[in-house]
Specification:
The chain is built from four helices and six strands; from the N terminus they run αααββββαββ. By secondary structure, it is of the alpha+beta class.
Length: about 170
């Protein structure tokens, strides 16, 4: 790929993309794994891609016909595809609603067993053949539970609410 004529354009765009990347990772780290914030996180991150793609398209619009700058079109197409892929399950869950399941057949596994104990945990429900990310605060109560009720969004794979019905 030939180098662009003006490197200042690349440096001017870098803070915008760095800020969007920082917001993406901050949302991924600090937002909970359960409830409405967890459901709306992919939708928010998908909407975050749209200004990035628009900014890239707007700054390179004058070079639209040049073969040297075809990567902005690819970036815009990739951002649009990623936004659709991230937002589709959330939209389907908002339309279809959540489902409830009461079960005794469940177990918890670490999603990253080779990392430290602050790594995430997953609630495995063999009845529906799905596993869900859970917050660390639910790990010990769920280890003592014998029966739970789970409200979940099936397309996104996110738990809306966990109720412990029986404990040991």
């Amino acid at each position: 790929m030939p180098l662009p004529h003006n490197f200042a354009d690349l440096y001017r765009e870098a803070p915008v993309f760095a800020a969007c990347g920082a917001v993406y990772f901050a949302c991924d780290i600090f937002l909970p794994n359960e409830g409405w914030p967890a459901l709306l996180r992919p939708l928010f991150l998908a909407l975050l891609l749209i200004p990035c793609a628009r900014y890239l398209w707007r700054t390179r619009r004058h070079d639209r016909l040049s073969w040297r700058y075809q990567y902005p079109r690819l970036c815009v197409a990739a951002a649009g595809t990623a936004a659709i892929i991230m937002a589709a399950p959330v939209c389907l869950d908002l339309i279809g609603g959540s489902r409830n399941l009461s079960t005794r057949d469940f177990h918890i596994r670490e999603s990253m067993p080779d990392r430290d104990s602050s790594g995430g945990f997953r609630l495995v429900l063999p009845a529906i053949r799905q596993d869900f990310p859970i917050d660390n605060r639910h790990y010990h109560p769920l280890n003592r539970a014998t029966e739970i009720r789970v409200a979940y969004w099936p397309q996104s794979g996110i738990i809306q609410r966990i109720d412990i019905l029986q404990s040991r």
